[in-house]
Amino acid sequence: MSYFGLQSQIRKNNTNSVLLLLMFPVVFFGLTWLFFFLTSLGQQHSLAEEQVQYNLFESVNHNFLRTIPWISIGVALWFVIAWFSHTAMINTATGSKPLARDENKRVYNLVENLCISRGMKMPKVHVIEDESLNAFASGINPGNYAVSLSRGIIDKLDDQELEAVIAHELTHIRNRDVRLLIISIVFVGIFAFISETLFRSIRFGSISRGKKGNAGAAILIAMILAFVGYLIATLFRFALSRKREYLADAGSAELTRNPLALASALRKISKDPIIEAVKRNDVAQMFIESPQKELKNTSVSFSSLFATHPPIAKRIEILEQF
C-alpha cells in the first residue's frame, strides 16, 4: 500500500468524513419521502377503482414538506438530550475515572508536554482499571475533554509508545472527532428507536388484533424503511469511525515526529485490547482499537463493513511508510 504524505492523508480523511456525515440526513429524509411515496401508491390503487384522479408526486411532495418541520423538531430534541448526557454515559459504560497528578506524574508530564507543543488546553486525564491495553478520547467542549488510558497501557508501554498513543487521542480532540461520532450515534439511535417502536405497534397494535387496512400497511412499510435506514446509518457510522482512526494516526505521527513509536504501540495493543467493562458498540468505536471481541479481517469483505476500526496491520503498514 502506497502512502501519499501526511497532509494528503489528513485532507483525504477529512473529505471522506464530511461526505459520510452528510449522508446521514440524506438517508433520513430520503427514506421519509419514500415512505410517503409507497403509501401513496396504495392509495392511488384504491382511488383508481373509484375513478378518482390526482397527481401522485404532488401529493407525496406535499405530505413530505408538511412533515419536515415536525421531523426536524423531533431530531433536534433527540440531539439535545444525547449531547448533554453523552459524557456521563461514556464514563459509566467504560468505567473511566479521574487520575490525579500525584498518582502518576509520568502520564501527566507526557500529556502536558504534547499540549504545550500545540498550544492546546490540557484535557482531563482518566484511568480505566483494566490490565488490557487501550485508550480513548472523550468530551464535546474544552470544559470536559478527557484522555482515558487503561492501567495496562500505562504500565506496559515505554515513554515513546505511550506518548504516541496520547498524541493519537489528542488528535481526536483537536479534530473534534467525538462530536462527529456523537452525531453518527444519534442518527443510528433514531432509526433504532423508530424500528423498535413500529415493531411493537405491529406486534401489539392493530395488526395483531386482526384489523387490516391502510394503517397496518403504512406501519409495515415504515418499519421496513426504518430498518433499512438503521442498517445504512450503522454502516456509515462504522465507516466514519474507521476514517477518523487513520486521521488520528497521522496526527500522532505529526505531533511526535515518531510514527514508528505508534506502530510499536499498536502491535502491543493488538495482543490484548479487550476491556471487559465495555459492552456497547457506540462506545467501542471511540477507543484506539476495539475493546470488544469482533471478527478481524484485513481484506475488504462483508464482515469488515461492520468493524468499528480499520485493520491494525494496515494502520501499522501506513505508519511504517513515513
Q: For the report, how would you describe the main beta sheet?
A: 4 strands, mixed
Query: What oligomeric state is this?
Result: single chain
Q: Please tell me what the overall shape is.
A: elongated
Query: How many domains comprise the coordinates?
Result: 1
Q: CA-to-CA gap between the ends? A: 12 Å
What helical percentage do the residues reach?
A: 55-70%
What average pLDDT do the residues reach? 79
List the uncertain runs.
46-53, 206-211, 295-300
Radius of gyration: 23 Å
Strand content is 5-15%
Element order, helices and strands?
HHEHEEEHHHHHHH
Order of strands in the sheet with most strands: 1-2-4-3
Structural class: mainly alpha
Written account of the structure:
With 322 residues, this protein is mostly helical. It has one domain (6-96, 175-319). Helices cover 67% and strands 5% of the residues. It is built from ten helices and four strands, in the order ααβαβββααααααα. The protein has helices at residues 6-49, 56-94, 105-118, 151-156, 159-174, 177-204, 214-256, 259-271, 281-284, 312-319, and strands at residues 96-98, 124-128, 135-138, 146-150. The protein has a four-stranded mixed β-sheet. Mean pLDDT is 79; it is low at 46-53, 206-211 and 295-300.
